[in-house]
Design a protein that fits this description.
Length: about 100
């Protein structure tokens, strides 16, 4: 008797997954990270970007540029840097996936 075989990737398509991106400065690295997230083939995806008070205005421009072109992207802009732990926790707390 053959066992039922389920493909986890197919079964999981209904599960929302959050890709969290914690950011501080480094706009080119951020751009690469966001490009990687938006290029995923999984459909039920939320991309949550949390900027930790970057003083470089290019960071906000990069985030807003991607957010305008992809409705899966949500952004959090913290007014001041409160440390890496705060920023990672912010992503975790705000995630819907």
């Amino acid at each position: 008797m053959a066992a039922d075989v389920h493909c986890p990737a197919t079964a999981a398509q209904g599960v929302r997954v959050t890709v969290g991106v914690a950011s501080y400065n480094r706009p080119e690295l951020l751009r690469r990270a966001i490009r990687s997230a938006v290029s995923q083939t999984y459909k039920n995806l939320e991309i949550l970007i949390s900027d930790n008070g970057s003083p470089n205005p290019e960071v906000r421009r990069v985030i807003e540029e991607f957010a305008r072109s992809d409705t899966r992207i949500r952004c959090i802009f913290h007014p001041v840097n409160q440390g890496a732990f705060f920023n990672f926790r912010s992503v975790f707390t705000e995630a819907n996936g």
